[in-house]
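User: Predict the structure for this protein chain, please.
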Amino acid sequence: MSLPPFVNEPILELRRPDARAALQAGMAALEPKLPLRVPLLIGEQRTEGDALASTDPGASDRVVALAPRVTPADASRALDVAGEAAPHWGATPAIDRAQSLV
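Assistant: Here is the predicted structure, written as structure tokens:
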């Protein structure tokens, strides 16, 4: 099995009413799930937190995501884990790697 050729997403033309309506519908569907909680994942370790708040640029009082603060030790540990996993990941077929992102 192979991956389809890469194609950039088309530019979203918000001047078109149908494109604006689709974007607004997507945002309305997302609204009840806000704020999203984004964990820190390093290997098998999952850390939750709300030290960092990401806000809507159009409405700065609206928090859209919360995430834990990452320390230099976390970054170092992530590099170690990535280095250990690199041989296995490199031997994993591209289609399987792509599926892990879905």
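The chain has a mean pLDDT of 92.
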